Structures are given as C-alpha cells and as structure tokens.
Amino acid sequence: AALAEARATSEGQLPGAAAMGTGTPPSPSGAAFEETRLHVFTLDYPHVQIPFEITLWILLASLAKIGFHLYHKLPSIVPESCLLILVGLLLGGIIFGAEEKSPPVMNSDVFFLYLLPPIVLDAGYFMPTRLFFENFGTIFWYAVVGTLWNAIGIGISLYGICQISAFGLTDITLLQNLLFGSLISAVDPVAVLAVFENIHVNEQLYILVFGESLLNDAITVVLYNLFKSFCQMRTIKVIDIFAGIANFFIVGIGGVLIGILLGFVAAFTTRFTHKIRVIEPLFVFLYSYLSYITAEMFHLSGIMAITACAMTMNKYVEENVSQKSYTTIKYFMKMLSSVSETLIFIFMGVSTVGKNHEWNWAFVSFTLLFCLIWRALGVFVLTQIINVFRTIPLTFKDQFIIAYGGLRGAICFSLVFLLPPAVFPRKKLFITAVIVVIFFTVFIQGITIRPLVEFLDVKRSNKKQPAVSEEIYNRFFDHVKTGIEDVCGHWGHNFWRDKFKKFDNKYLRRLLIRENQPKSSIVSLYKKLEIKHAIEMAESGMISKVPSSVSLSDYHEGKIKPLSPTEMENMREILTKNLYQIRHRTMSYNRHSLAADASEKQAKEILIRRRHSLRESLRKTNSLSRERPVLAFCGVFW
Amino acid sequence: CGQAQVGVPRVPQGSAPVTSLLSLAVTSEQIEHLHRRFKQLSQDQLTIRKENFDSIPDLEFNPIRGKIVHAFFDKRNLRQESDGLAEEINFEDFLTIMSYFRPIEMNMDEEQLDRFRKEKLKFLFHMYDSDHDGKITLQEYRNVTWAPRCPIPPESPAWSSPCALQVVEELLSGNPHLEKESARSIADGAMMEAASICVGQMGPDQVYEGITFEDFLKMWQGIDIETKMHVRFLNVDTIAHCY
C-alpha cells in the first residue's frame, strides 16, 4: 500500500513539473497563473520513503543491539529477545501516541518471505549434522506427534471452556478452536535460538529442542491449512481427513526433496566457479532462498526445504569455494540472521500496541494454562514411549528442559494475523491470546530458564576448540563400534552411516567437488591448525627458510595466479615437512629418537613460542561473534 | 523359553560356569542372540580363534580390524590376571568383551557411572597400548593412525621398503596417496597436545615417556564415553527362541 501511495504522489508531481513549461501549474489556492521559480533546495520524501524507512528500522534495531551490550551483564540476565520486544513496545507506544492510530502491523508476507528465511538458513547451515541424524527419530517423534498432541489437546480443551456460557465465548466453534490450537502449539525456532544461545546446554538437549522447532513446521503448515479450509467448508467428509494426512507427507517430504535437489545443484554450480570467485557466496544464498520460495509456492514446508538445502550444500560447497568466499558466506549469513531476528522482535513489540485487541479473562488465561499443561504432559508421555527405543534414555532433567524450552514466537504471531476475519469474527480475541502466550514464554520462560538450568545442574556444553587428537579418537571410535556391530551381526546406526559415506565418496563427491582428493576431516583439521600456526610463526619472523608464498598461499590466492593441484600439493608437502622438522626440534618429547641438529638456542625459542601458541589455541574458541555453540562442532562432526 | 529376569540366563550346553555373567546385567534374550552368533562364528565349536573372525565379510573393510580382533583375545580385557594373548576364547569370554559396549542404565549412581566409564576407557587404552606395558608411546600412537592391514609388524625394518607402503592403508583417510610422513606428523601433533594437557608446563629437558592410563583418563574427560561407547543392539529385546 505504501508503495502505491508513493507512486501516486510522484505521479502527481510530474504533471505539475511538466506544467511549469506550459504555464499552468496546479496551485492549492486556485489563483491565476503563477510561475514557480527554480527551487534551490527541495525536499522530496515520498520518493525515497520506503527504502528510507526500511533503513531506519534496521539501523534502529542494530543501535538497540549495541545499546544492550554496553552493559555487559545485561545479556546474561535477560535474553536479547525480551529487550528488543520492549524497545518495540516503546516505539509502538510513541507512534500510537503521536498519530492516534495503530502503528503498522508486521506484514505477514514480509515476515514469511523476507525475515524468516535468513534465520532458518543460518541455523540449518551450521547444524551439527551428525548429532542431528543420531537423534533424528526422537526429534521427528517430538515434532510430529508432539505438535499433533498439543494442537488437538489445546483445541479440544479450549472448546470445552468455550461451552461454559458464563465466559461469553459460545460462538467459537470446535473447528475454530482446533485451528487456534494448531497455530499456537508450534515451538518457534527463532525464539528457541534466541534463548538457548546464551544458556549453553549440552548439544544433545539443544539439538532436540531446536530440531523439533524446525521439523514441526511441516505439521504446522498442514494443520493450519487443513483447519482453515475446514472452517470454510460446509460439510466435512472422511475423505478430507485422509487428504489431510496425505497432505502432511507431501508437505514434509516434498519440502525436503526440493531442498536436497537445489542443494545438489548449488554444489554442482560451485564446481565451476573457480574463475569468478567473487560471486561464489551469492550462489549459496540464491539457491537456498530459491528452495524456500519454491516450496512456499507449492504450499510445502519452506523451512524444511531451506534446512535440507543448507545441510546438503554445506559439505560440498565448503570444499569448492575459496577460503575467502567461505568466510564471506559465514559472516554474511550471521549478519543477515542477526538483523532479521532483531527486526522480528521489534516488530512484534510494535504490533502489540494498538487497537487490535479484545480482552477476555477466561479465554486468555485458559489458553496460557492449557499451553503449559499440554506441553508438559506431552513431553512426559512421549518421552516414556521414545525412551524404550533410545539407547541413552532421557532423564527427568532433560524432559523438563525440553518442555520448558518450548517457546512460542513470531511464527504463531504471523499466522494469527493471517486469519481471514470474515470466517473468524473473534479474531481480535485470538490475537490477544497469542500475544499473551508469546510474551509469557519469551519473557518469563526466557528469563528464568538460565537460573533453572544452573539450579538443576543440567550438563553444559564444553566449547573448546576441536583438537586433532579428539578427531582421531572420534574416528577410531567409529571404527571400533562398526567392527563390534559387525561381529554381533547387527546393523546399527554406524552401518548405515558407513554405507552412506561409501556412496558419498564413490558418486556424489566425484560429481560435485572440483578437485576430488579424498580428504579426511582429521587431515583437513590438522592442516587448518598447522597453517594457522605457520602464519603466526611467519609473522613473528621465525620461519625464514620457508618461502613466503607457501604460507600465504591460502590467503592471497586472488593475487597470485591460480595454482595447479600439483603445485598446491607440493606446497602443502613443504609446509608439513618443515613444520614436522621444527617440531622434531621443539617437541623434546623423546630426544633420543630424533635427529637433533641446528642451533639449540633457536630450538628453545621455537619451543617456547610453539607451546605458548598451542596452549592459546587450545583455549580459544573458534566461534564467531554470535557465540553459537554449534559453530564449534561444524568441523568435527562429519 | 528364555526367562525374563535380569542376569539369570539359561546356560547353553557345555559352556563354562556363568556365575560371572550375573555381574554383566545383560538380559537373557541378548545372551541367547549372542550365543547364536557365537555358534555361527565358531562353526558349532566351543571356542573361537582368530581365524574365525575372517568369516565376517564386513569386517574386512575396517581399517583397524586387526586391533579389534586382537582386543577379543587380549587377556587384560578378559579380566584374567595374566598378561598376553589367549589362543582361543569361549562364550563366556565373548560375552565379557561384549559387555564393555553395553549402554548406561537409568538407575546408575555416580560411583557406578564412574566405574563404568573407567572400564570402557580401559578397553580403549588396551587397544592403543599394543606392547602391554601400560603406556602409549609415540610409536604405538603412530600405529593407530597408520594401521596396516599387512601382517608386517610396525617395528620391523621392512617398513622402509616401498612395497610395504603400497600394501598399507591409512586409518583415517582411506587414501593410499597420503604419505606416511603426514600421518606421522599428525600423530606427533596429537601426542604433543596430549603432552600439553597432561603435563602442562614442560621444561626443554623433560622427556614425555608416554601416555599412561591416568593421562588417558584426563584426555577423555571432556567426552562422555559412557553414552558414546555402546552398541545399539545390546538394548533391543530380540525374540527368544527355544532350543
């Protein structure tokens, strides 16, 4: 609407400007001919209104973020999401007070098409795939059955409440209640990320809650559309229910397939980009966004599509693109998702203020109550069932955190605004109830989850840098487990993982990766660490014999002409050999078996610096500024 | 058939007394299944030898096959007082090895968990420590990262010959083009990390002999082995068959 308005105003100006030549300019007073002189200084706000406002909003969001971090203790007590909602409320209040009308409500299209994808992309790209697939059964169980349980439970119990005529809610039908239940039962990935980011629970718990919030999008989409159509249909036949179930499978599997397909295409594309490194990051973003909107076009699950695309792309793209492109991708993704998240919470705050509300004590309070009760019950009952199939059963502490971490957020907020008011005369009531639930989960649960985690002594994640030895152990482990499984004659997880790896190495990698040297993750991790150390030492002037182009090969690739694979291999050889020799001297691990030549003084110096830098790197974490625990594991797993 | 009580299995004919099995806490159905597997491997004999493991096709592709098979016959794992390698093992020994891979139970307390963890880590430690001296030296560590499938022992001078290099396959990358040098430097790097974790500040004259079991425990502190080191099978209730 704003866009149309802007166009109209600028159209309106054109005839006026043209009229200057003919001599009859429009003038409000309707007076006779009046020539306008040349304007020295003009203000033309409508021309830039839209980009201007967008920029101001984003700038405001980012400034707010700076403000929060000025007082360093604040983010640890109150999660950022709460503070941002407060800022939004403030802003909304100002706009409401100034203009006496409701501030612009967050447009659901803007949310679903522009604000949500970057966040999901970021989360999916850095997801620890190994852990995700190990727990896939549990995650799927919670996402599908859990959400169904919640939706139907909340819907039916609210309908029961509505029947009590004292509350004045009798005009809300069962279907409307079920629809409301389905949109409010979905755990929201944005809110979960925002809150869990700071409390650092162990990866297992994190992946369970977060994975659930991603996968339940499929069932939410299906239930929402299903009940919305049912509300608008006059009769409901059994065939419609079966159609609903079939729809679920199509939505979920279709979304994933689109994501995987486009992920492969992206990986294949990056195979040929070595001449034009500069636009490599663009492909990652374009293909993943394409998967999202393609899925949305078919009314499939966009979230699952973009997650599948990101997870597929990750492995192969990482090896095809240059180091700089990879860094660009990571940073840009983080930046986009950070901005999106901030904007979402601020808009939620702004949209709350206004005349969109209808308060009904019974409905609102019972909604909140039922949300909490059904979530807790659901997690408890489902865990009892799934624990039978899990090798590591989930304890009560885990269950509590999973139940408590079921936060609602912007997705249900947007879904409720999308309800057609013709079919839902009590829409404002729904909006109020949703807002109350969201505020409760984000504020109360978000703030108290950190002290609860500490009180319950839940296992936390350890954010240390992956060490080479750890990687070796992990790999050794896998082989031992697979071997024992073979001896037992049982096909476990490791068997399928092995099979997939073989298929991957034989076909997929050959097709999708440019220089296909089978590289073990241990070797690449080791080489990454070594190159880092080599750079440090080169900078401190210790290695004079190694030619500088070797140690800087990865960093100045753009300036030197592209190296052939054999040259690269030679350089890596030289690097490894030189470092190995230095370590020969500095290790003093077992002097007797090593050839000790070269100056002792230099050796001591190198030893001290080397140990110092090794200890430093063992302590430092590799995470980027957003401090996600998943980042530390992206290299180790898979 | 097959009683449901924990730790009271039906004793298959002709095997050693199963009183020690009571401490293993595997259910009778699992013992039945494992016994069937044992009979299959041993071709209906009472004991199995190293050669019997050759009949497992998938194990062929495992780079540390030798170490796994060796672990079954290692007397330290069989809870026997003596040292060295057993010639053959019976069903009870087979079960003993399998019990190292059972998952944790929900009702275990701190002390039991700790003991559990130590047992599993000791099993792994024995796999690394091939000369049974209680320490993992650099040479043994190198062997882990460069595990040959040929029967040439790592200490022999035959290693310098090119044909030996052709036969071996590197544990970690499965890449025959990766040179021994790189694998050695990786092992060295990992060893140095171990040294810095376990010993901390080292003077230039200090010699780090090798990783003892206590150091090994320290290094694995961060990793919760009790949840990782299990084979799913041991928790699934299979259908009990009657003999």
UniProtKB/TrEMBL annotation, chain A:
It comes from the Eukaryota. GO terms for molecular function: potassium:proton antiporter activity; sodium:proton antiporter activity. Residues 545-630 form the Sodium/hydrogen exchanger regulatory region domain. It is a multi-pass membrane protein. One of its GO terms (biological process) is sodium ion import across plasma membrane. Keywords: Antiport, Cell membrane, Ion transport, Membrane, Sodium, Sodium transport, Transmembrane, Transmembrane helix, Transport. The chain crosses the membrane at residues 54-71, 77-98, 110-127, 139-162, 174-199, 205-227, 239-269, 289-310, 362-389, 401-423, 429-453. Signal peptide: none annotated. The keyword Glycosyltransferase does not apply. The keyword Metal-binding does not apply. It holds the Pfam family NEXCaM_BD. Coiled coil: none annotated. GO terms for cellular component: apical plasma membrane. Residues 58-454 form the Cation/H+ exchanger transmembrane domain. It is found in: Apical cell membrane. Residues 8-30 are annotated as: Disordered. Belongs to the monovalent cation:proton antiporter 1 (CPA1) transporter (TC 2.A.36) family. This is Sodium/hydrogen exchanger.
TrEMBL record, chain B:
Residues 116-144 form the EF-hand domain. The keyword Ligase does not apply. The keyword DNA-binding does not apply. It is a lipid-anchor. One of its GO terms (cellular component) is ruffle membrane. InterPro entries: CHP3 (IPR052490), EF-hand-dom_pair (IPR011992), EF_Hand_1_Ca_BS (IPR018247), EF_hand_dom (IPR002048). One of its GO terms (molecular function) is calcium ion binding. Its main location: other. SUPFAM superfamilies: EF-hand. It comes from the Eukaryota. GO terms for biological process: cell differentiation. It is found in: Cell projection, Lamellipodium; Cell projection, Ruffle membrane; Cytoplasm; Membrane. Keywords: Calcium, Cell membrane, Cell projection, Cytoplasm, Differentiation, Lipoprotein, Membrane, Metal-binding, Myristate, Nucleus, Protein kinase inhibitor. Belongs to the calcineurin regulatory subunit family. CHP subfamily. This is Calcineurin B homologous protein 3. It comes from Zosterops hypoxanthus.
